[in-house]
Design brief:
CATH superfamily of the largest domain: Butyryl-CoA Dehydrogenase, subunit A, domain 3
CATH topology of the largest domain: Butyryl-CoA Dehydrogenase, subunit A, domain 3
Largest sheet: 4 strands, mixed
Distance between the termini: 36 Å
Structural class: alpha+beta
């Protein structure tokens, strides 16, 4: 059996790659990052016109009706271009939450708008998926939310927010709801936005059909998208390091001719490439083998977190002193990989979860 991409999947990924090559050069990334981690609306519109915003949303609601493997291929391409656009929450986690737990009315109201890119969604499940922080957590009572949620994903420009409470239930909140205070959380990655949400009796619509299983699924889907993003960003850093090594001369020779540099580049590729199969299979399992999905998602997130960090550091070292300069822009990929590593669960957290699933620990 050959586990490989279909021609349609390859064409889709090539289309996204070509669109981002034109719409999202490094200067556009730099402009968005310098603007305070605001999403690049022009780049997002290009992607929405391709149908990327509705990749998972059924055709009946205006989406493409594709699967999580296709979404992972898009996430990999976004990481390749370090695109400053919402995706993990807006196009993946929020639609999955609405499809899993939303009523027919909620789905009819929000899914078409998400599919068109008219509406964007943030998702706040970090207290469940990545480990609770001190004084964080949301409680629900009589249709209202109170408490604090940290590291809401795709925070800037969001129109609606999907929130998990302490009882592992999901709620939909309007971003302009009374009693909701929103504050941007600065991170090392300025190509995406994360926020703190403080709820003071905020009116919320429960996604009544969602259960703990639904929260686990959307969290695992988010982890696989982040792993795919790291895969794409890591390969860009490797390719840039190889290209630089072929041009840079030292001691009268290009540095690519030095065995030590060859070994660094080969080791980066050897570390990162196994993650591709993990990401593909994890995305496939989320759609078709749900019993395996939690374990393989944990493995994919953990492995890419470690391999991505190694690639980011080593590629910067190959570039020497210029690697850390803003002029080169390599730091955007470095920081993107760094932010992906702890989000929705660090490698250590994911390995612990895998150990529990294997029943190695209680």
């Amino acid at each position: 059996m050959e586990f490989a991409l279909s021609e349609q999947q390859k064409m889709m990924q090539d289309s996204v790659d070509g669109a981002l090559t034109k719409a999202c050069p490094l200067d556009r990334v730099r402009g968005a990052a310098d603007g305070g981690a605001a999403p690049a609306d022009d780049v997002w519109r290009v992607l929405a016109d391709l149908g990327i915003a509705g990749v998972l949303i059924p055709e009946a609601h205006g989406g493409l009706g594709l699967g999580l493997l296709e979404a992972a291929l898009i996430a990999e391409t976004l990481g390749k271009h370090v695109a400053p656009v919402p995706f993990v929450a807006t196009a993946v986690m929020a639609p999955l939450a609405l499809m899993a737990g939303g009523t027919a009315t909620q789905q009819a109201r929000w899914l078409p708008k998400l599919a068109s890119g008219e509406v964007r969604a943030a998702v706040a499940v970090s207290e469940y998926a990545g480990g609770a922080r001190e004084n964080a957590g949301v409680s629900a009572k009589d249709g209202r939310l109170s408490g604090k949620a940290l590291f809401a994903i795709d925070f800037a420009g969001a129109d609606i927010i999907i929130v998990a409470d302490r009882e592992l239930r999901l709620h939909l909140v309007l971003a302009n709801a009374a009693g909701l205070t929103m504050r941007a959380l600065p991170t090392i990655d300025r190509t995406r936005s994360f926020g703190e949400l403080v709820f003071d009796g905020v009116a919320a619509e429960p996604l009544a059909g969602a259960s703990e299983t639904a929260i686990a699924r959307i969290s695992d889907a988010g982890r696989v998208m982040l792993a795919a993003d790291t895969l794409g960003a890591g390969w860009t850093m490797i390719n840039k390091a190889v290209a630089y090594a072929k041009e840079r001369r030292q001691f009268g020779r290009i540095i690519a001719s030095f065995q030590a540099v060859k070994h660094l580049c080969a080791e980066m590729a050897a570390q990162l490439e196994p993650g591709r199969a993990l990401v593909w299979y994890a995305a496939y399992a989320l759609d078709l083998r749900p019993d395996e999905a939690p374990l393989v998602a944990a493995h994919a997130k953990s492995y890419l977190g470690e391999a991505g960090r190694f690639v980011a550091r080593t590629a910067t070292e190959v570039h020497g002193g210029i690697g850390i300069t803003d002029m080169l822009g390599l730091h955007y990929w470095y920081k993107r990989i760094g932010a992906n590593r702890p989000l929705l669960g660090s490698p250590e957290h994911m390995r612990e979860q895998a150990a529990r699933l294997h029943e190695f620990v209680a």
